[in-house]
Amino acid sequence: MTQPQRKTLLIVWHSQTGGTRQMAEAARAGAASEAGCDARLLHASAAGPQDVLAADGYVFCTPENLAAMSGQLKDFFDRCYYPVLGRIEGRPCASLVCAGSDGTGAARQIARIATGWRLRSVAEPLIVCTHAQTPEAIAAPKTIAAAELQQCRALGQALASGLALGVF
């Protein structure tokens, strides 16, 4: 009897003040708790087309910057979009956004790119709002609350479980 092939969940992130990094790490911890799935956590600047092609599913993690995804995550998508276009269709994805007030602009941008890649969104964007509104609060290091990190862990675990079980 052959062993089922292990699946890989790629978590691509960028963070300026640490909030998104904490969220991505929590998603990875949740995914790593599932047998049958490996979780790869890569900074957006280090992730490339080969990483995208080698993965079976994705979590894209970004801070919201000026109502948009971060430039580093956008750069990741710019470098990877055409090299993988038509080669990853139907794979599951989700997004995590660390926002000061809203987060929907960044989530919409990721969703549009995922639609172009023909990925299958398997969860609503998870947006954590830090309520940072002043220049000082926006630039300050962030600490994400345990309850919100648990949501990120649960999302990572659910994606990894779905991959391992062949649901996605």
Verbal overview:
It is a single chain. This protein is α/β, with parallel strands linked by helices and about 170 residues long. It has six helices and seven strands, in the order E-H-E-H-E-E-H-E-H-E-E-H-H. Helix 1 (about 20-30) crosses helix 6. The longest helix is centred in the last third of the chain and has 20 residues, at about 145-165. The mean pLDDT is about 95.
Compose a concise summary of this entry.
With 168 residues, this protein is an alpha/beta fold.
List keywords for this structure.
6 helices, 168 residues, Rossmann fold, alpha/beta
CATH class descriptor:
Alpha Beta
CATH superfamily: Flavodoxin domain
Strand content is: 15-25%
Span of the ends, CA to CA:
23 Å
CATH topology: Rossmann fold
Instruction: Please compute the radius of gyration using only Cα atoms.
Output: 15 Å
For the record, the CATH architecture stands as 3-Layer(aba) Sandwich
Biggest sheet, in brief?
7 strands, mixed
Tally of structural domains: 1
Q: Report the average pLDDT across residues.
A: 96
The best one-word shape is globular
Strand tally is 7
